[in-house]
Amino acid sequence: MSDSSRIKKIRGYQVLDSRGNRTIRVKVETYGGVSDFGDAPAGASKGTREAVELRDKDGGVTEAVRIVDSVINDALRDFDVLNQLAVDRTLLKLDGTVNKSRIGGNTTIATSIAVLKTAAKSLNIEYFRYIGGPKTRYTPIPLLNILNGGLHAGNMLKIQEFIIIPKDFDSFSDALFASTTIYKKLKDLITERYGKIYTALGDEGGVSPPLEKTRDALDLVYTAIKNSGYEGQVYIGMDAASSDFYNDGVYEIDGKKYSPDEMIDYYANLANEYPILYLEDPFNENDFDRFATLQSKLKNTIVTGDDLYTTNVEYLKKGIEKKSTTGTIVKPNQIGTLSETFDYIELAKKNSIKIIVSHRSGETEDHFIADLAVGVQSDFIKTGAPARGERTSKYNRIIEIERDYGLEYYGKRL
Ligand SMILES: C=C(OP(=O)(O)O)C(=O)O
Ligand SMILES: [Mg+2]
What we know:
Residues 136-413 form the Enolase C-terminal TIM barrel domain. Keywords: Cytoplasm, Glycolysis, Lyase, Magnesium, Metal-binding, Secreted. GO terms for molecular function: magnesium ion binding; phosphopyruvate hydratase activity. Its cofactor is Mg(2+). Pfam families: Enolase_C, Enolase_N. The protein is α/β, with parallel strands linked by helices. It folds into 2 domains: 7-124, Enolase-like, domain 1, CATH 3.30.390; 132-412, TIM Barrel (Alpha-Beta Barrel). Helix content is 40%, strand content 19%. Helix 8 (288-297) links the parallel strand 11 (276-280) and strand 12 (302-305). Helix 1 packs across helix 2 (84-95), helix 2 (84-95) packs antiparallel against helix 3 and helix 12 crosses helix 13. The longest helix is centred in the middle third of the chain and has 23 residues, at 172-194. The radius of gyration is 21 Å and the shape is globular. The chain binds phosphoenolpyruvate (PEP) and magnesium ion.
């Protein structure tokens, strides 16, 4: 092993995320002086089966930092950053729990990312190239969350995310720039309809007008697409994040109560009225069967599991068996290491489940997931509105990759 890839030191420190909360950044340094960092993002609408985030009582992450500086630093010193599997297995062993509750999923994912980035740097190649090798060919389709509700916004909308999907374009940049036109049109429409400029944004940079009903939000988004001249090229998606409006067998939405079976019709009716290509977490995180019923009804919609699977192969296996979804969210911090994330993606791909590499609602400006999405050749990347630095850093990184390496846009192949 060369000095440029042999770990000399691992240190953690606290930085800020996009909600102004503290999060952990881990920095790895090799004997050859190569060094890079990894950040832990943070969710607000988390699945209950996610890796546990280690947080102090006051919301800080000083205990996580202490663990990195002592336990993790001691265990990984002299390891080769090029041996990601050995690093991640050691992190798993140090923790020893099923949900990373001992040393924290935030400490493990920040370390795992820092090690991978340092490895790529030690070889002097791009992160996405290190992950994907020479076969890397496509840029993913962005899922842009331009209108926010649920736990990410201060309005009364129960659906968490109203998404635009710029599918039929020749390049990632064209797709993204068309999306910004629609995003701006949406702001104009809100001003026109409600006589006031609602400057409030949700956690992921989408507008958050004071609406209550799903159809009002869908009307706005669909009108913005049509008025921008992109009907037939740009589709609609939603992340219902429905565990957050589900209680004791009842979904409460649009001022009414729905049984789980009634919710099947609720979504099917919306998919009849609007060009809904993508629907994430339509049912609560335990209802694998109703996901399957809905997916079998909606042939043209990619029903997707996020809280349902939490990037965990055990739950994805169950979803595959039951034919619950044709898509899955991939959030590395839900599981806690990159090696586990790669295993998860492999299982999904083997079963023709579409991959959506995703940010969290609490992000830093690091663009690592853009490289991850390109490296694993995901179908989609979901990283918020085309506004606000912690979201644009990911989109701008893909623009850079497209420009410098001539990758093709995946859109029309979907
Ligand atoms: C990104 C999401 O939200 P959070 O990070 O709050 O879980 C999501 O639910 O897809
Ligand atoms: Mg989600």
